[in-house]
Please model this.
Amino acid sequence: MKSFRQCLTLNVPARMAFVNITSQVETAVAQSGVSDGLVLVNAMHITASVFINDDEPGLHEDYKRWLEQLAPFDASPQRYQHNRTGEDNADAHQKRQIMGREVVVAITEGKLDFGPWEQIFYGEFDGRRPKRVLIKIIGE
Model:
């Protein structure tokens, strides 16, 4: 069995944004030489996520609005106990929990085996600094 590991570094200038990383994952799959296997893609930070969905801007705006309603940004220590530690990103931790840490995609004949419209996204909820995404590929 082959194994391949690569890290992406993303520096999103906005506090919250979604970045399509499908092409970077496809490149890693091609570099791995794996034709039948699995790829794990995960955010290596607790205020970011990786998820699969449609690359439709209206949907992304809906996600942002929905997440902000569920866990509004508030840097003060009054709303979130986590912010009493000197941090200001409690909302980002909650948004990450909702959107998830990682995705696993099958690799078939050397390609990502997606359903219609599926793309891989990095979700940033506390941006403005470099963060890593792990791509781990195993298979034959």
The mean pLDDT is 98. The first strand starts at residue 2 and ends at 10.
